Amino acid sequence: MKYLIVGIGNKGEEYAETRHNIGFKVAEKIAEKIEAPFKSSNFGLLAEGKYKGRKVFVLKPDTYVNLSGNAVKFWMQKENIPLENILVITDDLALPFGSLRMKMKGSDAGHNGLKSIQSQLNTQNYPRLRFGISAEFSEGKQADYVLGKWNEEEKEKLSERIEKFSQASLSFVFAGIQNTMTAFNGK
């Protein structure tokens, strides 16, 4: 069985430590856990490894968030990975900081990366893992907030939350989405 885990984020040093790039951070932790280095490839950086006998591709698209669907569609087709074996990791303004929510399907919730994926795949029926970044910004400042850096309080908790999200992602691979949602949602 093959799995594609996609961390959503923006390429470039200026975005590296921003809220919008949490998908990249979780993807990096997953690749570290399966001992798979990232290599430059089509549409981004790809780490290829095995976890509990299953082939796992971890992707950090270099298309910027708004065009993430191009990378997801390419790798899904190239490796013949079924829709239910794709997990997209993204930030979510509607959840409190660090909250974990895995879903089998759902709307894009206003996230441009998810909009792009849904447009390219022609469906919203794919698994996703949302990392809560909260919505502590004034009206009209959403872009500044998601592209802003973590505050000190968030930084203190970030590595523990990234670890939890990487565990949930790998649980998705070996235990399936239902068991993973039961074990990790809200944790």
Q: What structural class do the secondary elements suggest?
A: alpha/beta
CATH homology group: Peptidyl-tRNA hydrolase
The total count of helices amounts to: 6
How much of the residues is beta strand, in percent? 15-25%
Global geometry:
globular
Order of helices and strands: EHEEEHEEHEHHH
Q: Kindly state the percentage of residues in helix.
A: 25-40%
Q: Runs with pLDDT <50, length 5+?
A: none
Strands across the major sheet, in which order? 2-3-4-1-5-7-6
Instruction: Tell me the radius of gyration.
Output: 15 Å
Q: How many separate domains?
A: 1
Would you give the CATH topology? Rossmann fold
CATH architectural designation: 3-Layer(aba) Sandwich
Count of strand segments: 7
Overall CATH class: Alpha Beta
Task: Kindly describe this structure.
The mean pLDDT is 94. It is built from six helices and seven strands; from the N terminus they run E-H-E-E-E-H-E-E-H-E-H-H-H. It has a single domain, classed as Peptidyl-tRNA hydrolase (Rossmann fold, 3-Layer(aba) Sandwich), CATH 3.40.50. Helix content is 37%, strand content 22%. Strand 2 and strand 3 (44-51) form a beta hairpin. It is globular. The chain is α/β, with parallel strands linked by helices. The chain has a seven-stranded mixed β-sheet, with helices on both faces. It catalyses: an N-acyl-L-alpha-aminoacyl-tRNA + H2O = an N-acyl-L-amino acid + a tRNA + H(+). TRNA binds at residues 15, 64, 66, 112. Belongs to the PTH family. Pfam families: Pept_tRNA_hydro. Monomer.
